[in-house]
Structure formats: structure tokens, C-alpha cells
């Protein structure tokens, strides 16, 4: 059991920075199906709204806005279901350039 946990940590740590939260997110990503791949077209309202090149718009969870305010197009992103699909922000958006994952809800 300890060997399994340690090997899971070693596998996740290099790609996600190694913190327990990032490891949990990495494991969560592997468990959930990717719903959409696209690229950022525009980040507006100080990082609160992200428009993707496929035309969809997403609202960012307020505590994640400091991360998304610096995101640039045409960064590739992927959208997955979050851990709480009934929550107000039921999806996760991962910026493939920065590797940062934020909670979002779809506007359009």
C-alpha cells in the first residue's frame, strides 16, 4: 500500500508540481473523461470570462480569477467534469501551457 501511494506520488509530482492538491487533481483528471479540447480566443472581464475558439464562453470561479487573468490565447485548454457536477461551477478547465486547472461554468 505504501509503495503504491509513493509510486502514485512520484508519477504525478513531476507533471503537476507535487503538492497534495495538485496530485489529487491529476488523479481526478485521469478518472474523468475529457469533454472538450479547444484553444483560448479571448480572456475578458479581468479573467472572469473565457471565450474559446469553438465559440463557447465560460465563467471562472471567483477564487480562480487571479490565475486566469494572465492567460493568453491561443493557449490550448481541455474541459472535464469537476468532482461535483451539481455545483455552480461543475467543470474544470486546464490550460495546457500553464498546467493550471480552474473551476468554470458554461455561459454559452
Keywords:
108 residues; alpha+beta; 2 domains; six-stranded antiparallel β-barrel; 6 strands; disordered N terminus
Helix-strand pattern = HHEEEHEEE
Sheet with the most strands, sense and barrel status: 6 strands, antiparallel, barrel
Structural class: alpha+beta
Give, in spatial order, the strands making up the sheet with the most strands.
Answer: 1-2-3-6-5-4
Report on the architecture of this protein:
By secondary structure, the protein is of the alpha+beta class. It has 2 domains: 1-31, no CATH class; 32-106. Helix content is 29%, strand content 33%. The protein contains 3 helices and 6 strands; from the N terminus they run H-H-E-E-E-H-E-E-E. A 6-stranded antiparallel barrel has the order 1-2-3-6-5-4. Strand 2 and strand 3 (57-60) form a beta hairpin. The longest helix is centred in the first third of the chain and has 15 residues, at 2-16.
Short summary of the structure?
This protein is α+β, with helices and mostly antiparallel strands and 108 residues long. The protein is built from three helices and six strands, in the order H-H-E-E-E-H-E-E-E.
SSE layout and pairings?
Layout: H1 2-16, H2 20-31, E1 34-44, E2 49-52, E3 57-60, H3 65-68, E4 76-81, E5 91-95, E6 101-106
Antiparallel strand pairs: 1-2, 1-4, 2-3, 3-6, 4-5, 5-6
Amino acid at each position: 500500500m505504501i509503495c503504491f501511494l509513493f509510486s502514485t506520488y512520484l508519477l504525478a509530482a513531476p507533471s503537476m508540481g507535487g503538492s497534495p492538491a495538485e496530485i489529487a487533481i491529476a488523479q481526478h483528471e485521469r478518472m474523468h473523461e475529457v469533454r472538450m479540447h479547444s484553444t483560448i480566443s479571448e480572456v475578458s472581464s479581468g479573467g472572469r470570462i473565457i471565450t474559446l475558439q469553438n465559440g463557447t464562453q465560460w465563467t471562472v470561479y471567483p477564487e480562480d480569477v487571479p490565475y486566469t487573468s494572465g492567460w493568453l490565447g491561443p493557449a490550448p485548454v481541455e474541459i472535464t467534469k469537476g468532482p461535483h457536477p451539481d455545483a455552480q461551477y461543475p467543470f474544470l478547465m486546464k490550460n495546457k501551457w500553464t498546467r493550471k486547472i480552474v473551476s468554470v461554468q458554461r455561459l454559452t
